């Protein structure tokens, strides 16, 4: 299919021709799915995202001024919706079942259980010593698993402010934990770097 044919299909779809839009979906579904998969890294979620992109595209198609820009316009929609989905999803605390099945089961020894209990206790003490806003921000993200957008809505601040508060609160908690247990402080700092905020 040539770009001229695509332009004609876009013009027809803009007037409400569903068959023309169906042809566009058929033509672009592979590339939209590939881009979605590259961003969300989950085949089922990428498939769902691709469907959402085409539904959104169908509703917004009359706003597209230049039909020749359809491919780029669709790419921008895919990128934006992928970012929105990842931001809403929040931190991931799980793994694919296939990965978990491949990991050999191992019971914790009594010493390990004790060490984990001690670390949790020290972390609670550290959190209690923080200012209320720092504590609430860390608990929302790490304990309640809220996404950055959810926290921003909850605290009625921009997402960038939430990122800054998480960064500052983690640094303050690290200082508090260093006074309690330097090893725990290093572990917490490493966890924060892995979270990427």
TrEMBL record:
<dbReference type="InterPro" id="IPR007627">
    <property type="entry name" value="RNA_pol_sigma70_r2"/>
</dbReference>
<feature type="domain" description="RNA polymerase sigma-70 region 4">
    <location>
        <begin position="127"/>
        <end position="175"/>
    </location>
</feature>
<dbReference type="InterPro" id="IPR013325">
    <property type="entry name" value="RNA_pol_sigma_r2"/>
</dbReference>
<keyword id="KW-0805">Transcription regulation</keyword>
<keyword id="KW-0731">Sigma factor</keyword>
<dbReference type="InterPro" id="IPR039425">
    <property type="entry name" value="RNA_pol_sigma-70-like"/>
</dbReference>
<feature type="domain" description="RNA polymerase sigma-70 region 2">
    <location>
        <begin position="24"/>
        <end position="89"/>
    </location>
</feature>
<dbReference type="InterPro" id="IPR014284">
    <property type="entry name" value="RNA_pol_sigma-70_dom"/>
</dbReference>
<keyword id="KW-0238">DNA-binding</keyword>
<keyword id="KW-0804">Transcription</keyword>
<dbReference type="GO" id="GO:0003677">
    <property type="term" value="F:DNA binding"/>
</dbReference>
<dbReference type="InterPro" id="IPR007630">
    <property type="entry name" value="RNA_pol_sigma70_r4"/>
</dbReference>
<dbReference type="InterPro" id="IPR036388">
    <property type="entry name" value="WH-like_DNA-bd_sf"/>
</dbReference>
<dbReference type="GO" id="GO:0016987">
    <property type="term" value="F:sigma factor activity"/>
</dbReference>
<dbReference type="Pfam" id="PF04542">
    <property type="entry name" value="Sigma70_r2"/>
</dbReference>
<protein>
    <submittedName>
        <fullName>ECF RNA polymerase sigma factor SigW</fullName>
    </submittedName>
</protein>
<comment type="similarity">
    <text>Belongs to the sigma-70 factor family. ECF subfamily.</text>
</comment>
<dbReference type="InterPro" id="IPR013324">
    <property type="entry name" value="RNA_pol_sigma_r3/r4-like"/>
</dbReference>
<dbReference type="GO" id="GO:0006352">
    <property type="term" value="P:DNA-templated transcription initiation"/>
</dbReference>
<dbReference type="Pfam" id="PF04545">
    <property type="entry name" value="Sigma70_r4"/>
</dbReference>
